Fold:
Amino acid sequence: MNKEIAVLGAGSWGTALSMVLVENGHQVIIWGRREDLVQEINEQHTNQRYLPNVRLPEQLKATSSLSEAVAGKDVVVFVVPSHSMRTIAKQVKKWIGDHALVVHATKGFEVGTGMRMSQVLKEELSEPFETRIAALSGPSHAEEVAQKCPTTVVVASSHSEVAEEVQGIFMNHYFRVYTNSDLIGVEVGGSLKNIIALAAGLGDGLGIGDNAKAALMTRGLAEIARLGTAMGAKPLTFVGLAGVGDLVVTCTSQHSRNWRAGYMISQGKKLDQVLHEMGMVVEGVQTTRTAYSLAMRHHVEMPITEQLYAVLFENKDPEQAVEDLMRRGRTSEWEEIIRSW
Ligand SMILES: NC(=O)C1=CN([C@@H]2O[C@H](COP(=O)(O)OP(=O)(O)OC[C@H]3O[C@@H](n4cnc5c(N)ncnc54)[C@H](O)[C@@H]3O)[C@@H](O)[C@H]2O)C=CC1
Ligand SMILES: O=C(CO)COP(=O)(O)O
Structure:
């Protein structure tokens, strides 16, 4: 059945997801902060800054009013950067109808608390949304979804009927949606892969080779799974779309902002300059900070994250970071993961 849907966040991902939803016959309104962007979407049917050279469907409406966006909607999709999730949730809670489904497609944790996005939403929206929150994640660059390239994602909720309802709303012939009951694993996998993508971009820029990149991805997955399981995730989730799937695409795609940020740092650019030049959200930077402290809180080793933290925030020489990773003490490949099962 067709739904009335609000998409909050008119960046690349919010715009691409809105296109999917319009394609599926839903009535979609996208909320953006900037009036000029809202006007561009409504009048030119483009979003040149965040999704260049894409023609948006004329049925897609945009607004800069949060109340207009969410009031009376069947589904509210949050696609704002993680740093603004709580503020936006606080602002909209008085307008979201009691019957609405809440979905988020954001990859990251709340800075300071280390909370997952569904936890932030639960805390802000409270009853009666406790059971009606789902997370959408997986290997899905907005640029390719907007071109209708075959894409698979996963929607997770602790309530299977919620995940299945969201699956039905988003799924179509080029956007295949799987369900998963492991909300923690899906959110943690989608967030932590950005750290490894940054490291992969750095490694590629330093020219450390394909063997090293395969090592970063594989050992990266091991540390993602280690922290994830310590946080309550199911290990199998990390070999699924929100784990290895998203890790592969983000470490290898030309579209990845996290990979590009790592590459630019390897060329000697300072972090501030990289973020300024990118002009888009690079979630992996703050996620590195958060994962670094979550690893301490949960007493798990995350050697790649620790080295990236030192490069990003303590001015460590990236080549030294690679050397230090290679000189770590001997260990067994599966020891820690098996211990955490
Ligand atoms: N771009 C992609 O291919 C994908 C992105 N994501 C995730 O989606 C989330 C959003 O990313 P994108 O749309 O790519 O970002 P983007 O960089 O393309 O756009 C960011 C949007 O957020 C808005 N924004 C920035 N600060 C804000 C604030 N304080 N309050 C409200 N809005 C604010 C900007 O105006 C802009 O509309 C991120 O967590 C990202 O990791 C997930 C899957 C794919
Ligand atoms: O999460 C993404 C693809 O699945 C987008 O990654 P970037 O933010 O690195 O572009």
The mean pLDDT is 96. The chain has two domains: 4-181, 184-340. The domain at 4-181 is CATH 3.40.50.720 (Rossmann fold). The CA atoms of residues 177 and 209 lie 34 Å apart.
